[in-house]
Structure formats: C-alpha cells, structure tokens
Amino acid sequence: MNTSSATSPDKKQDLFLVCGLTSLGQHCVEVLKQYDVKVNAIDYVQPEYWEIPEVPGLLEKLIIGDCRQPNVLEQADIRQCRSILIVTRNERLNIEAAFAARRLNPQVRLIVRSDKQNFNELLYENLGNFVAFEPTHLSAYAFALTALGSEAIGYFTLEGHLLRVIEHQVQQKDSWCNGKPVHRINLTTRRVLSHIPASSQAPKQFYEWNPEAIVQTGDTLVYIEVAQDLAFSEQYISESQDSWWQWREFLQGIAPKNLQQKVIRFWQSYYQSQNQIRRIATIYAITVLMLWLVGIILFCLYYPHITVQEAFYATAVLLLGGYGDLFGGVKFASQPVPSDNMSWWLRLFSLGLTLTGQAFVGILYALLTDALVTSKFQFFNRHPPVPQQNHVVLIGLSRLGQKVAAVLQELDQPFVGVHTTTLGDRVLPKMPLIIDNPTEALALVNLTHAKSIVLVGDDRMENLEIGLMAHAINPSSRLIIRSQDRQFSENIASLFPYAQVICGAALSAEVFACAAFGENVLSLFHLSAQIVMVTEYNIEAGDTLNGLLLSEIAHGYGVVPILYQKATQDNYLLMPWNDVNVCAGDRLIVLAASSSLQRIEWGEMLPRLWQVQIENALIRSAIADAAQKIALITGCSLVTAKQLMNNLPSVLPTPLYKHQAQGLVRELKKFQVLASVVFIGQPS
Fold first, then answer.
1. Which of 152, 154, 227, 442 could cross-link to 165 by cystine, CB 3.0-4.6 Å?
2. Burial class (CB in 10 A: 0-12, 13-18, 19+), 317
3. What's the whole-model pTM score?
C-alpha cells in the first residue's frame, strides 16, 4: 500500500472508475464518495432502477457502453484513473475489461469481481496491482457468524493462528475480568477492543473507553484473542441421542400442574420430527396396550376361576389374530368353555381385539418396510441425519448458501441444509440435506429446537415469506434473511425487528472500495453496527504510516494493530506492543473501520489532547530507567526525557493520546515515579 499521494495538495482529486452499476456497483460508488474522491462509471445500458437514489448525483461521468471497448474506457478517462472496479455479474466480461484497462493504463489498480481463484492468482502474478473478490465469499462469513448466536462475532487466520473476536457480557462468576481494570485484561494473546458499561451505548470508534475503568457485572467486553480452535459449546448429537434427549426433556420437570402442557408440547415436538406413519403407529401402540389391559380385566371378571396369566395370554392370542382359534372352544384352566356361553358383548369385544391387532401388525410391517427402504437409500446417500437441537437451518444452497454451509462446517456448528433440487455428490457430502420445497421442509428440520434460521435464496420475497413462517413456528430462534437491496433491508429491519437482514452488496462494497486504495482486506466482521476490516499494509517510503510508533498509528487513526513483522525478518508479533516503531518495508495488519482507513489514506490523524505531569521519583536510582521508558513510549529523544526527570516536577512537552498517556503513567508507577494525565483541551 502506498499512500504517498495522500499527502499531496490534490490528495482528494483521485479519479476512480466503476464498471457495472448493479447493486454492488452502486454501493461501491457510495462508499468511494465517502473518501471525497471523483468517481466515473460505465454501464452497458442506462440503469432502470437506482437502488441508491443519490448515485447519479455522485458520479462525475456516466458512460453507456461496453467496458471492454478501448474507446469507452477512454471516454471514462481511464488514463487518469487511480483504480478501476469491474463489478459486473459476468466474470468473463470482467476479466476482459481488466485486460483492456491495463493495456490503456499500465499503472491503474485493477479490482475485479471474480470467483476463479486459480486464474486470479495467475493474473496477479502476470498483471500486477491486481486483486479479485467474490461478494458471496465476503458475505458468507457474516451470515455464518450471525447464525451462530455465540459470543464469537468474527474469526480469521493469520500465519496459521486462529484469531477470534468475542463479545462477552460479564457475569458474576467471571473472575478473569470481573472487578479488574480494563487494561489488566490485555495479554500477549488478548487485546480489548471495547468496554461498554451496563446501560451505556456502544462506542462508535475504537479507544472510546477508559482503560482505568473497573469491569463490573453486566458490562460488555469486546476483545480479540488468539485461539487454537473455536471451542463452541454446541456439539453434534446423533439421532439416537436426540430421541433420548426428547424423552428426557419430557420426563424432567413433570408436575401435576403442568402435566397436560408437557404432554402437548412433547407431542408437537414429536410431530415436527417424525413422519406421519410413525405418528399413527404411536397412536395404535397406545391403543393396543390399553385394549390388552382392558381384555385381561374383563376375562378375569367374567371367568373368576381363571388366572391372570391365562387372561393375559388369551387376550394376546386375540390381538394376534387368533379369534377363530380361540373361539373354536375357549379353554381356561383346562376346562372347556363353549363359545355360545359367552355373552355377546364380550364376544364382540374379542372380535374388536382381533381387528385392532391385525391393523397394528399391518402398521408394523409398513414401518419395517419403510425402515428397510430408507436404510437402502441412506446407504447410497452419504448425508448424515438432521440434528435435533441447537442447530442452524440453512435454506437455499446456491453459491452463497454452499459457502455459508462450508463456514458452518469449519466452525463445527450442527446445521441442516434445505434445497429444492439435488446437489452433486461432491458438494458438502457431510452436510445433513433435505431436498424439498422450503415451505414443506419446515416440518422436517426440527424447527422447534433450532437456534437459527438462515435464508439465503435468490428470491428476497420468498426468503421473507419462509422467514415469517419459520418465526411463527419458533419465535425464539434467530432469523437471518438475505437481501440484495438496501431499501428492502431497511424496510424489513424496521417492520420486523426480530429479523436480521444482511445485504451482501453493501457488505462487499466496503471491501472493494478499500481495495481500490491499495489496502489488502483479509477478512471482515460486524461490530456495533459497523463493518470492521482486517487490513494488511506493506509500509513504503512516503506512506502516512512510515516512521510512527504503533501507539500513534493505533490512537491517531483509530485502528487496532494485531500483527507486526519487521522488514527482512521472518519473525512476527501477534498483538504487538505499542512502543514499536514502524519503518519502510515492515508489514502491519490492523483492525479498522472504513472511516479509519480514510484517515490513513489522507494522513489525517486525530488530535493529541493529553499530557503527562510527573510529580516526583520516590527512588532516585530509577530516574534513568524511567527516562528510557518515557523515550520509548512517547518517541521523544532520550536527552529530553532525562532533562525532564532531572527537573521534577514538570510536564512532558510531547502531547499524547489518552490511552498512550495513561499507559505511560502506569509504566512510571512501576519505577516508583508519581505521575498523572492532564487534559489540554481542544486545539485552536
């Protein structure tokens, strides 16, 4: 990344070109204009619908034509462009347009919408200054993480390490953080991103919290940590275990007052998870058992001289279809009882037992046949059974849905996919899958025990319809709906507050736009209603980051450094310390919102509004060590720091950021040096 142009007087006159004004293209224009740059656009036809009505007024030029044609690119001032974003829905057209643009402007940066990963790597090696993204891949992580419903709101890998972002509400039992100052929670493997006291609003930027504040129960901590794997609490449960879980849930907590409610609730749950023939079999089994018991009682009452055992077997013979055998001469205790001596109602009841038993045997045969046929198909179908609880229902397995499914599998999250047509044998073979109409499939996915329902189909109205049906069945589950239109997303979010609507185009546009300025976006996640991007910088001479301390970069631009690698060295630091000086050739990865990336692009650092007043050194021998620490943390010269420490009390002349100043005071305290922070107010 080279931001040297950001320091020139005409830094805001960079020209960018967007090819393809689909939903993604329009969002790219909107995000680019937030950087206060000029934007031209090319589209094959005049757009009939502006998803973002302000876009026509944001464009310097709109050229109607084929972006692969040199004359069309010339009309759009391709030779003066810093970057060109080619985001039409046709991958072949995008690649061909990239070739044409590179031919006309060898220095232009190419940002292309493409899913051909191998081909994209070859183009990067041969064309240079080239990057390609696929919107479905970018938004898949947002859908998957939202569906998890756990504390993890983001995850990504750096240099083989898995990093995750956690949003945790502090509990009374959290001894690792409860009752401690926020700054003490920072470790070599953990960095606090935000501290939100109970009943307070979430900050809009990083570092808008007090590191000296005491963490209390009910507060919310957002932090990033290094983890070997994502140990989510939910584990996959087999089908046999799920049946036992349902029965255990039914039996536990039964009381006379809630017995009827428990039975109704369990029956509804059982109906959702089983097919119709099994429900009928359950009814018949209960009926047969009751008739068996009634038959034993009636025979014992009508023939007092027989035993209970003989009545038991006589009723069993009738239930198994032995009416003719038994009434050829009923015998009890080896004494013949003519059938004509039996009362008509008992003989009619016996006939009813035989008919009921025969029907039950027929149902048993049907169940066995169904089990054999099902097992035969499951032998060829490698998809596992549907989970029974704490799972995600993923409806729609197009390209985006398959990517979301892959992420869920990577996170070890139980889920079931629903699609209208069959998928290839090699497409996610370990995924539980139901091939059916989505509205019909809702009865087959154990929806009453699902933790989330994710709808990523291509038809937004169908997504909404199925989502509302699913919410009516299970109001407690999390509902995530895909939208391809920002206005539709805003309307749904306001009318149905329980639904989380994600617009993939708006999400992806942030990445495309940031890449247009040279940033390498590795991943992204949502934090407090804003998109945070994991962005990599390779520092060059003249960059706005060159020569700064990490603490100055962090607090001056509002970013969180998470990896630092010195030039020409293989070693790197995760969660690096703030006193590292960044130089040309170094590599830096930060967490940053779009506004922070804009400040880096322009070189506009936030004002330094704090100073450190040093009162006294309790141990004279520590003055030299304290002076070195001051020079290391603030970046001032060692001579200045020594003069300061030899003329106490005094105020450090170097203005600092609040967190930077508070950190210096804490470090000086370790050397028995008393100091405090002083607010110097807004600059003139």
1. 154
2. middle
3. 0.66
Q: What is the pLDDT of residues 86-109, one digit of tens each?
A: 999 999 999 999 999 999 999 999
- Environment class of 353 (CB within 10 Å of its CB; exposed 0-12, middle 13-18, buried 19+): buried
Sheet holding 190-196, edge to edge: 152-158, 161-169, 220-227, 190-196
**Section 217-230 average pLDDT:** 82
Strand partners, 17: 40, 84
DSSP state for residue 181 in the 8-state scheme: B
Let me know: does 215 contact 221? Beta carbons within 8 Å.
yes
Q: Which residues pair with 226 in a beta bridge?
A: 163
> What domains can be seen in the chain, in order of their start residue?
4-133 (3.40.50.720), 277-380 (1.10.287), 508-602 (3.30.70.1450), 610-679 (3.30.1390.10)
Neighbours of 647 (CB within 10 A): 9
Hey, what are 503's tokens? 């617009």
Residue type, 296: I
Residues 387 and 124: beta-carbon distance below 8 Å: no
Residues 391 and 414: beta-carbon distance below 8 Å: yes
Residue 283 C-alpha from the chain's centroid: 42
- Averaged pLDDT, 612-627: 89
Contact 543, 586 (CB under 8 A): no
Contacts of 96 (CB under 8 A, 6+ apart): 68
Element spanning 293, H or E: helix 276-302
Instruction: Give the pLDDT score at 362.
Output: 74
The rounded distance, in Å, linking the Cα atoms of 86 and 114 is 9
| pLDDT, tens only, 111-125 | 999 988 888 888 888
Q: Backbone phi, then psi, for 531, in 5-degree steps?
A: -95, 125
Cα–Cα distance, 390 to 413 (Å, whole number): 9
The H or E element that residue 592 is part of is strand 587-593
Range of lowest pLDDT (128-132, 215-219, 482-486, 530-534): 482-486
Give residue 386's identity as a one-letter amino acid code.
V
Give pLDDT, residue 288. 73
pLDDT above 50 for 646: yes
* 135 conformational bin, left if phi > 0, alpha if psi -120 to 50, beta if neither: alpha
Confidence (pLDDT) at 263:
54
Note whether 205 and 558 are within 8 A (CB). Answer: yes
Give the Cα separation of 392 and 414 in Å (integer). 6
Per-residue tokens: 435: 């091939």
Q: What are the b/e assignments for 577-587, b being 16+ CB within 10 Å?
A: ebbbebeeebb
With CA atoms as reference, report the closest residue to 573 among 123, 161, 110, 153: 161
**477 secondary structure, DSSP code:** S
606 burial level (CB within 10 Å; 0-12, 13-18, 19+): middle
Three-class DSSP category at 616: strand
Are 358 and 365 in contact by the 8 Å Cβ rule? The answer is no
H/E run at residue 228: none
Of 208 and 5, the one with more pLDDT: 208
Window from 246-255, 390-399, 472-481, 647-656 with minimum mean pLDDT: 246-255
Q: Quick one: which H or E segment has residue 338?
A: none
Q: What is the pLDDT of residue 374?
A: 56
Instruction: Round the average pLDDT of the chain to a whole number and report it.
Output: 82
* Separation CA 186–CA 663 (nearest Å): 12
* Structure tokens, 515: 């890449």
Q: What are phi and psi of 40, to 5 degrees?
A: -105, 165
